[in-house]
Amino acid sequence: MSDIxxxxxxxxxxxxxQDLLAPWELFKALAFDLDQQGETLNVxxxxxxxxxxxxxxxxQIQTEQxxxxxxxxxxxxxxxxxxxxxxxxxxxxxxxxxxxxDGRWVAANCAGVxxxxxxxILDGVSFQAAAVLGRRxxxxxxxxxxxxxxxxxxxxxxxxxxxxxxxxxPSTIALITELFGKERAAALAGTWDTLPLHGDSLFELExxxxxxxxxxxxxxxxxMEKVFLPVA
Length: 232
Fold this sequence. Notes:
The chain is an alpha/beta fold.
């Protein structure tokens, strides 16, 4: 039985739909499977404001209101355009710091990695990031892993980071492998057709190497990096 019994997916205005909902749905599916075996996993889709949150592409998501004083075994910070503003939000940054200081897991993808970076808990840690953020994070003193991989699970730090939206589904399986075991992760991956596509790489602490096109990435960074991680 896992020590992880309650998980928060933190929503904020202009959050990325795939970045938030794909891993949330996988964890909800896991919670259903665990329930059939008499185990409990509470998965919350929440925000500090509660109610409707408008996503990056305009969909409206109903969220539960959470308090900055609430604690979860794992908090997941997704990406999207709204990650830029979230990276400057003291309430969100304090929330991340408090969880990590208590020895709890912190996970992030895409622009959410920039939010977690701004919290300070990635200081001295080599981590993964979306291509759009790599250059700017290094300029700010971050140890962005090279070569870039789709994800990293760091059990010793209780930190999980992954790249852009295409990495979200397989990386979530990798995170579930670490937290709940390979058997449960493989059952989930097989059901969702992730296993036939990605194979045993899903169960590794580090994801596959990203085959970046340097010119494309440089253009992407020049156009968007300060949107996803604005000047503080």
